[in-house]
């Protein structure tokens, strides 16, 4: 397998370049849309037959994520599907509001500071945009083998078919098989925290995210996702997943949530179906070295992941797609320098977000009471106002 590009921008078919995108999540969908807009041929494969169109409860999107969604041409649909707000409340466990802070508009003054929406709706909007782009999409399909040479990448798929590409973009998530296949050995590490999530009806008057620290969980919070819905979450120390029967997920989350006041009693009434509760560990992941090997390059969670304490996971993945697509569509040479530049532009910003997100959680795990949370949040969010 070739680790460096000895020729610039090869054309395996003698015509325009061809790209394979592995993974149809936020970063994979976004880079597909942007490359197709530039007339580049893209095949997208996704392991899940339903393209993850029904998976997840809710998502919090801050301005820098909304900026990329606008670039993708889907802002109008996102805006009409979600719930925009501009402040963050801090409450005591009993629901007493301690203070409310105005959120920074990291995407610029013409975009909301924050927008919550149901994750399946965001995914469907991106799916529709990928379909409309003219990309070739194959669901329920994975890669069996990748073989690189100086002229491109030969791929054998799980259905026995084969393809030849000038570039492969690995957007296959936190446990990326492609990352491992090309010899990048970095792997995610658990941080010691886990989160329970559920979608629920929106109580009247709930119009922003509120966070409660203390009580039986480290954090209890919620985010409005439409005029009628929210997603709610509680964060605790991670437990062995094998020790928790999925049939008890609603009981476990309700046990934690029922200790909180304010809007929580109404929310807790809807924590009654274990199939609708999601339990996930927090992970830290950052590939410090190059994000490419030859003609295979990583984007999104395949390259980095952080706890959702800053609500920046999807934003970082979307920014990856934007920066990579910009380079691929404005540079004449698809060579090692291009991918080195991509890594150099993304790494400092992503490292800042990963480290800050992990730090917030670690302060809670360690019981640090005098941590400079406002300072860390202010520095990080102000930096994210800059273009990636």
Helix content: 25-40%
Number of helices: 10
Average predicted confidence as pLDDT: 95
Q: What general outline do the C-alpha atoms trace? A: globular
Strand order, largest beta sheet? 6-5-14-15-16-13-17-20
Strand content: 25-35%
Q: What string gives the helices and strands in order?
A: EHEEHHEEEEHEEEEEHEEEEHHEEEEHHH
Main pleated sheet: 8 strands, mixed
- Gyration radius from CA atoms, angstroms: 21 Å
Please tally the β strands and state the result: 20
Helix and strand content put the structural class at: alpha+beta
Which regions are unreliable across 5 or more consecutive residues at pLDDT < 50? 1-14
Topology readout:
Elements: E1 18-22, H1 26-37, E2 41-46, E3 58-62, H2 63-71, H3 75-81, E4 83-85, E5 87-91, E6 97-102, E7 114-118, H4 119-133, E8 136-139, E9 143-149, E10 152-157, E11 162-165, E12 167-170, H5 177-181, E13 189-201, E14 209-213, E15 219-224, E16 229-237, H6 249-257, H7 264-268, E17 278-286, E18 292-293, E19 296-298, E20 304-305, H8 313-330, H9 336-366, H10 373-384
Helix pairs in contact: 1-4, 1-8, 2-8, 8-9, 9-10
Briefly characterize the structure.
This protein is an alpha+beta fold and 388 residues long.
Please provide a written account of the structure.
The protein has 388 residues and is of the alpha+beta class. 32% of the residues lie in helices and 28% in strands. The chain contains ten helices and 20 strands. The protein has helices spanning 26-37, 63-71, 75-81, 119-133, 177-181, 249-257, 264-268, 313-330, 336-366, 373-384; strands at 18-22, 41-46, 58-62, 83-85, 87-91, 97-102, 114-118, 136-139, 143-149, 152-157, 162-165, 167-170, 189-201, 209-213, 219-224, 229-237, 278-286, 292-293, 296-298, 304-305. The strands form four sheets. The protein has an eight-stranded mixed beta sheet with strand order 6-5-14-15-16-13-17-20. Strand 1, helix 1 (26-37) and strand 2 (41-46) form a beta-alpha-beta unit. Helix 1 packs parallel to helix 4, helix 8 (313-330) runs antiparallel to helix 9 (336-366) and helix 9 (336-366) packs antiparallel against helix 10 (373-384). The longest helix is centred in the last third of the chain and has 31 residues, at 336-366. The chain is globular.
